[in-house]
Design brief:
alpha/beta; Four Helix Bundle (Hemerythrin (Met), subunit A); Rossmann fold; 7-stranded mixed sheet; 4-stranded mixed sheet; 11 helices; 39% helix; binds 5-S-methyl-1-O-phosphono-5-thio-D-ribulose
Length: 341
């Protein structure tokens, strides 16, 4: 069964509270822009595409609560800086608003629903394209959660795994724990187990020994932002995994919709990397792991250089290096901005 991270109800946006999984399945109803913004900041809803969809619904809420759309967009844009899907979705909502007169709630809600539906369709075609890369019996390592929970309900990296199973393949998954927020052990393992996958949790430092001692067919991850040259920002720890994969000759695949490509940035160095509160490292669920005055560094994402990426799986097909022209071509065919968002 596929979890649904977000759903529009007549009252507002209902979010599956991802902070409480896997032990508690609870939903939070957001009736205001501020409630959605808070939920994005605090990772009630997370994952690049899901953040974009949530922000789109929040713009409809802004129209309903009579908040100026510019103020709402500014607040939502301030929540998390790395995933470009957030800014992409806000831009789509602004375009609709600029074309309409009168009450904007209806048109904005319709656009948010369209973004939501398109994301699922896009994940499914991305999954179909990507599954062809996996052998009939595959062992795959994944990092963070790029699944149903991170999207509108099917997944990018995990969507590829789902599509492989739908194509009759057998897939064994190792899920990196993903420190510090544990999206791998808490979310990926939970959603894959619900779906009947054979999934084993490992800590982030175990992927190297795993690749050294067992046959691993692929490393498959999602992305928060992809620069025009194919450099990939994703959850912290992705870069280490890519380096180890290349060292062991294991293909390193990135699965992401074209809305994750930011053609306005030439290289990954320009991608803004979110730094989060150090207490995420110092404690887990309120239990201190180290004293409060121990210095920590907590970047939420890292950048994997394009040269380590074997292929980028998109809804428009599988792209191979050199990524500059491949991404440009794919964006052009999809009618998306090739330069400067
Ligand atoms: O901090 P998060 O949990 O929002 O980070 C999520 C990731 O890094 C995912 O891999 C990425 O957003 C792709 S989701 C399809």
């Amino acid at each position: 069964m596929l979890p649904e991270p977000l759903r529009w109800t007549g009252e507002g946006l209902s979010l599956l509270d991802q902070r409480r999984l896997p032990f508690v399945v609870e939903h939070r109803l957001c009736r205001t822009v501020e409630q959605v913004a808070w939920s994005i900041e605090n990772m009630v809803v997370r994952g690049a595409p899901a953040i974009g969809v949530a922000a789109a619904y929040a713009m409809a809420l802004a129209a309903r609560e009579g908040m100026p759309l510019e103020t709402a967009a500014k607040r939502l844009a301030s929540t998390r800086p790395t995933a470009v899907n957030l800014f992409w979705a806000l831009k789509r909502m602004e375009i609709v608003a600029s074309r309409c007169r009168g009450n904007l709630f209806g048109p904005l809600l319709a656009e948010a629903e369209a973004i939501h539906d398109e994301d699922i369709a896009c994940n499914r075609s991305l999954g179909r394209c990507g599954q062809a890369l996996l052998p009939r019996e595959s062992t795959v390592i994944t990092h963070c959660n790029a699944g149903a929970l991170a999207t509108s309900g099917y997944g990018t990296a995990l969507g590829v795994l789902r599509a492989a199973v739908e194509a009759g393949k057998t897939v064994t998954v190792f899920a990196d724990e993903t420190r510090p927020r544990l999206q791998g052990s808490r979310l990926t393992a939970w959603e894959l187990r619900q779906d009947g996958f054979d999934v084993t949790v490992i800590t982030d430092g175990m992927s190297g020994p795993l690749m050294r001692t067992r046959p691993v067919d692929a490393v498959l991850v999602g992305a928060d932002r992809i620069a025009a040259n194919g450099d990939v920002a994703n959850k912290i720890g992705t870069y280490n995994l890519a380096v180890v994969a290349v060292r062991h000759g294991v293909p390193f695949y990135v699965a992401a919709p074209l809305s994750t490509v930011d053609a306005s940035l030439e290289r990954g160095e320009s991608i803004p990397i979110e730094e989060r509160d150090g207490n995420e490292i110092r404690s887990i669920d309120g239990t201190a792991l180290i004293p409060a005055d121990f210095p920590v560094w907590n970047p939420a994402f890292d950048v994997t250089p394009a040269e380590l990426v074997t292929a980028i799986i998109t809804e428009a097909g599988v792209l191979y290096p050199p990524y500059g022209p491949a991404l440009r071509d794919a964006l052009k065919k999809a009618g998306l901005p090739e330069k400067g968002a």
